Amino acid sequence: MEQTILDQKVLSVLKDKIQLIPTTEGAIYLVGPIKLPVNLYGETVVFQWYCWLNYEEVTEDYGKIIEKLSSVNLAELQQSSVLVYGDFSDNEEAIIRMHSICHTGDIFGSKRCDCGYQLKQSMDMIVKHGTGALFYLANHEGRGIGLFSKAMAYILQENGYDTVDANESLGFVDDARNYDDAIMVLKTLRSKPVTLMTNNPKKLEALKNAGLKVSSRKPLWGDISEFNENYLQTKIKRSGHLQEDGTCPSD
Protein backbone atom coordinates (compact mmCIF):
# COMPACT_ATOMS: atom_id res chain seq x y z
CA MET A 1 0.00 0.00 0.00
CA GLU A 2 1.42 3.34 -1.01
CA GLN A 3 0.75 6.62 0.77
CA THR A 4 2.51 9.96 0.75
CA ILE A 5 0.74 11.62 3.67
CA LEU A 6 0.54 9.86 7.02
CA ASP A 7 -3.02 8.91 7.92
CA GLN A 8 -4.25 11.21 10.70
CA LYS A 9 -5.86 8.31 12.53
CA VAL A 10 -2.49 6.55 12.65
CA LEU A 11 -0.76 9.73 13.83
CA SER A 12 -3.36 10.26 16.57
CA VAL A 13 -2.58 6.79 17.92
CA LEU A 14 1.19 7.32 17.85
CA LYS A 15 1.72 10.97 18.80
CA ASP A 16 1.13 10.53 22.54
CA LYS A 17 3.57 7.60 22.54
CA ILE A 18 6.51 9.52 21.06
CA GLN A 19 8.76 11.85 23.07
CA LEU A 20 11.42 14.26 21.83
CA ILE A 21 14.71 14.45 23.75
CA PRO A 22 17.06 17.17 22.37
CA THR A 23 20.77 16.34 22.09
CA THR A 24 23.85 18.29 20.96
CA GLU A 25 23.71 16.60 17.55
CA GLY A 26 19.97 16.47 17.00
CA ALA A 27 17.41 14.55 19.02
CA ILE A 28 16.41 11.22 20.46
CA TYR A 29 12.89 10.15 19.57
CA LEU A 30 11.59 7.84 22.28
CA VAL A 31 8.59 5.63 21.48
CA GLY A 32 6.65 3.74 24.17
CA PRO A 33 5.65 2.38 26.59
CA ILE A 34 4.55 -0.83 24.92
CA LYS A 35 3.28 -3.88 26.82
CA LEU A 36 5.73 -6.77 26.36
CA PRO A 37 4.89 -10.15 27.93
CA VAL A 38 8.22 -11.93 28.45
CA ASN A 39 9.08 -15.50 29.32
CA LEU A 40 11.44 -15.06 32.27
CA TYR A 41 12.71 -18.32 33.77
CA GLY A 42 9.50 -20.11 32.90
CA GLU A 43 7.11 -17.41 34.10
CA THR A 44 5.37 -14.73 32.06
CA VAL A 45 6.32 -11.24 33.23
CA VAL A 46 4.78 -8.19 31.56
CA PHE A 47 7.31 -5.40 30.99
CA GLN A 48 6.87 -1.98 29.43
CA TRP A 49 9.07 -1.57 26.38
CA TYR A 50 10.56 1.61 24.91
CA CYS A 51 12.67 2.09 21.81
CA TRP A 52 14.69 5.13 20.82
CA LEU A 53 16.16 6.55 17.64
CA ASN A 54 18.93 9.11 17.23
CA TYR A 55 18.04 11.50 14.42
CA GLU A 56 19.71 14.67 13.17
CA GLU A 57 16.45 16.53 12.55
CA VAL A 58 14.73 18.09 15.59
CA THR A 59 10.98 18.50 15.24
CA GLU A 60 7.78 17.77 17.11
CA ASP A 61 6.06 17.17 13.79
CA TYR A 62 6.16 13.43 14.34
CA GLY A 63 4.19 12.75 11.20
CA LYS A 64 7.05 14.28 9.19
CA ILE A 65 9.60 12.03 10.92
CA ILE A 66 7.48 8.90 10.48
CA GLU A 67 7.00 9.61 6.78
CA LYS A 68 10.77 9.94 6.35
CA LEU A 69 11.39 6.67 8.17
CA SER A 70 9.16 4.81 5.71
CA SER A 71 11.77 5.48 3.01
CA VAL A 72 14.85 4.75 5.17
CA ASN A 73 15.72 1.16 6.08
CA LEU A 74 17.25 1.67 9.51
CA ALA A 75 17.94 -2.05 9.78
CA GLU A 76 20.55 -1.78 7.00
CA LEU A 77 22.96 -0.37 9.60
CA GLN A 78 23.30 -3.85 11.12
CA GLN A 79 25.29 -6.90 10.00
CA SER A 80 24.23 -10.48 9.48
CA SER A 81 26.01 -13.74 10.34
CA VAL A 82 25.71 -17.50 10.07
CA LEU A 83 26.23 -20.41 12.47
CA VAL A 84 27.50 -23.56 10.79
CA TYR A 85 27.36 -27.05 12.35
CA GLY A 86 28.98 -30.24 11.13
CA ASP A 87 30.51 -30.84 7.72
CA PHE A 88 28.28 -28.30 6.04
CA SER A 89 30.21 -28.17 2.79
CA ASP A 90 30.37 -31.86 1.95
CA ASN A 91 27.69 -33.71 3.91
CA GLU A 92 24.90 -34.95 1.63
CA GLU A 93 22.13 -33.91 4.04
CA ALA A 94 22.10 -30.42 5.55
CA ILE A 95 19.34 -28.40 7.16
CA ILE A 96 19.27 -24.59 7.23
CA ARG A 97 17.30 -21.73 8.74
CA MET A 98 17.08 -18.19 7.36
CA HIS A 99 16.25 -16.41 10.61
CA SER A 100 15.30 -12.75 10.68
CA ILE A 101 16.51 -10.82 13.71
CA CYS A 102 13.83 -10.15 16.30
CA HIS A 103 15.18 -7.89 19.05
CA THR A 104 12.14 -8.42 21.30
CA GLY A 105 11.74 -12.16 20.70
CA ASP A 106 15.33 -13.34 20.34
CA ILE A 107 16.83 -11.20 23.13
CA PHE A 108 14.05 -10.35 25.58
CA GLY A 109 12.03 -13.55 25.09
CA SER A 110 8.87 -11.69 24.03
CA LYS A 111 5.78 -13.84 23.59
CA ARG A 112 4.15 -11.41 21.15
CA CYS A 113 5.71 -13.54 18.37
CA ASP A 114 7.31 -16.98 17.94
CA CYS A 115 10.74 -15.80 16.78
CA GLY A 116 12.74 -16.60 19.92
CA TYR A 117 11.32 -20.12 19.94
CA GLN A 118 12.12 -20.57 16.25
CA LEU A 119 15.67 -19.35 16.81
CA LYS A 120 16.46 -21.83 19.59
CA GLN A 121 14.42 -24.65 18.09
CA SER A 122 16.15 -24.35 14.71
CA MET A 123 19.56 -24.43 16.41
CA ASP A 124 18.51 -27.57 18.29
CA MET A 125 17.20 -29.19 15.11
CA ILE A 126 20.46 -28.43 13.29
CA VAL A 127 22.54 -30.04 16.04
CA LYS A 128 20.29 -33.09 16.23
CA HIS A 129 20.39 -33.44 12.45
CA GLY A 130 24.16 -33.33 12.54
CA THR A 131 24.79 -30.83 9.75
CA GLY A 132 23.30 -27.44 9.05
CA ALA A 133 23.48 -23.67 9.25
CA LEU A 134 21.58 -20.84 10.90
CA PHE A 135 21.65 -17.59 8.94
CA TYR A 136 20.96 -14.70 11.33
CA LEU A 137 19.75 -11.82 9.17
CA ALA A 138 20.23 -8.64 11.17
CA ASN A 139 18.79 -6.27 8.56
CA HIS A 140 15.40 -7.98 8.69
CA GLU A 141 14.01 -6.52 11.92
CA GLY A 142 10.23 -6.14 11.74
CA ARG A 143 10.16 -7.83 8.31
CA GLY A 144 12.60 -5.22 7.09
CA ILE A 145 11.20 -1.98 8.60
CA GLY A 146 13.70 -1.62 11.48
CA LEU A 147 13.32 -1.68 15.24
CA PHE A 148 12.01 1.87 15.78
CA SER A 149 9.30 1.43 13.14
CA LYS A 150 8.47 -1.99 14.60
CA ALA A 151 7.92 -0.32 17.98
CA MET A 152 5.40 2.04 16.37
CA ALA A 153 3.78 -0.93 14.61
CA TYR A 154 3.38 -2.63 18.00
CA ILE A 155 1.52 0.42 19.30
CA LEU A 156 -0.84 0.22 16.32
CA GLN A 157 -1.34 -3.50 17.01
CA GLU A 158 -2.35 -2.62 20.56
CA ASN A 159 -5.01 -0.41 19.00
CA GLY A 160 -6.62 -3.04 16.79
CA TYR A 161 -4.32 -3.25 13.74
CA ASP A 162 -2.96 -6.62 12.65
CA THR A 163 0.69 -7.05 11.66
CA VAL A 164 0.12 -6.37 7.97
CA ASP A 165 -2.12 -3.32 8.46
CA ALA A 166 0.27 -1.83 11.03
CA ASN A 167 3.26 -2.03 8.67
CA GLU A 168 1.30 -0.69 5.71
CA SER A 169 -0.23 2.15 7.71
CA LEU A 170 3.29 3.39 8.47
CA GLY A 171 4.11 3.47 4.75
CA PHE A 172 5.82 0.09 4.45
CA VAL A 173 4.96 -3.09 2.57
CA ASP A 174 3.99 -6.19 4.54
CA ASP A 175 7.38 -7.85 3.98
CA ALA A 176 10.42 -5.90 2.75
CA ARG A 177 13.04 -8.58 3.45
CA ASN A 178 15.71 -9.46 0.91
CA TYR A 179 17.67 -12.70 0.98
CA ASP A 180 20.21 -11.99 -1.77
CA ASP A 181 23.24 -11.55 0.51
CA ALA A 182 22.45 -14.63 2.59
CA ILE A 183 21.95 -16.70 -0.55
CA MET A 184 25.34 -15.59 -1.89
CA VAL A 185 26.97 -16.70 1.37
CA LEU A 186 25.10 -20.01 1.29
CA LYS A 187 26.30 -20.64 -2.27
CA THR A 188 29.84 -19.96 -1.12
CA LEU A 189 29.60 -22.40 1.78
CA ARG A 190 27.69 -25.22 0.07
CA SER A 191 26.78 -26.38 -3.44
CA LYS A 192 24.74 -29.45 -2.49
CA PRO A 193 20.98 -29.45 -1.77
CA VAL A 194 19.61 -28.23 1.56
CA THR A 195 16.48 -28.72 3.63
CA LEU A 196 14.93 -25.39 4.61
CA MET A 197 13.28 -24.86 7.99
CA THR A 198 10.46 -22.38 7.43
CA ASN A 199 6.72 -21.79 7.27
CA ASN A 200 7.21 -18.94 4.81
CA PRO A 201 6.88 -19.86 1.10
CA LYS A 202 8.62 -16.58 0.16
CA LYS A 203 11.86 -17.87 1.68
CA LEU A 204 11.53 -21.13 -0.23
CA GLU A 205 10.81 -19.23 -3.44
CA ALA A 206 13.82 -16.91 -2.91
CA LEU A 207 16.20 -19.87 -2.65
CA LYS A 208 14.76 -21.68 -5.65
CA ASN A 209 14.72 -18.53 -7.80
CA ALA A 210 18.42 -18.11 -7.04
CA GLY A 211 19.13 -21.55 -8.44
CA LEU A 212 19.67 -23.29 -5.12
CA LYS A 213 18.73 -26.95 -4.77
CA VAL A 214 16.17 -27.34 -1.99
CA SER A 215 15.49 -30.98 -1.28
CA SER A 216 12.67 -30.44 1.22
CA ARG A 217 11.06 -28.12 3.76
CA LYS A 218 10.51 -28.59 7.48
CA PRO A 219 7.82 -26.59 9.32
CA LEU A 220 8.74 -24.62 12.41
CA TRP A 221 5.62 -23.71 14.38
CA GLY A 222 5.60 -23.50 18.17
CA ASP A 223 5.33 -21.45 21.36
CA ILE A 224 1.66 -20.70 20.69
CA SER A 225 0.01 -18.60 23.38
CA GLU A 226 -2.71 -16.03 24.02
CA PHE A 227 -0.14 -13.32 23.29
CA ASN A 228 0.71 -14.39 19.74
CA GLU A 229 -2.32 -16.34 18.47
CA ASN A 230 -3.61 -13.43 16.35
CA TYR A 231 -0.07 -12.78 15.09
CA LEU A 232 0.27 -16.39 13.93
CA GLN A 233 -3.15 -16.39 12.29
CA THR A 234 -2.24 -13.21 10.41
CA LYS A 235 0.86 -14.98 9.07
CA ILE A 236 -1.36 -17.71 7.64
CA LYS A 237 -4.36 -15.70 6.46
CA ARG A 238 -2.64 -12.57 5.13
CA SER A 239 1.06 -13.36 4.62
CA GLY A 240 0.64 -16.79 3.06
CA HIS A 241 2.54 -18.90 5.58
CA LEU A 242 2.05 -22.64 5.24
CA GLN A 243 -0.01 -24.37 7.91
CA GLU A 244 0.27 -28.03 8.83
CA ASP A 245 -2.69 -29.62 10.62
CA GLY A 246 -2.46 -29.26 14.37
CA THR A 247 0.64 -27.06 14.38
CA CYS A 248 -0.94 -23.62 14.60
CA PRO A 249 -4.08 -22.24 16.26
CA SER A 250 -7.27 -22.78 14.30
CA ASP A 251 -10.00 -20.25 13.61
Please give a structural write-up.
This protein is an alpha/beta fold. The mean pLDDT is 84. 34% of the residues lie in helices and 24% in strands. Strand 2 (26-40) and strand 3 form a beta hairpin. It has a domain at 79-138 and 179-251: Rossmann fold, CATH 3.40.50.10990. The strands form two sheets. Strands 4-6-5-7-8 form a five-stranded mixed β-sheet, with helices on both faces. It is built from ten helices and eight strands.
Characteristic terms for this protein:
single chain; 251 residues; alpha/beta; Rossmann fold; 24% strand
Contiguous low-pLDDT stretches (5 residues minimum) are: none
The CATH superfamily of the domain at 79-138 and 179-251 is known as GTP cyclohydrolase II
Note the run of SSEs as H and E. HEEEHEEHHEHHHHEHEH
Report the major sheet: 5 strands, mixed
Order of adjacent strands in the largest pleated sheet: 4-6-5-7-8
CATH topology of the domain at 79-138 and 179-251: Rossmann fold
Please state the second-level CATH architecture of the domain at 79-138 and 179-251: 3-Layer(aba) Sandwich
Rounded to the nearest angstrom, the distance between the terminal CA atoms is: 26 Å
CATH class of the domain at 79-138 and 179-251: Alpha Beta
Principal-axes shape call: globular
Helix content: 25-40%
Structural class: alpha/beta
Provide the residue-averaged pLDDT: 84
Strand content: 15-25%
What's the total number of strands?
8
What Rg, in angstroms, do the CA atoms define?
Answer: 19 Å
Give me the number of helical elements: 10
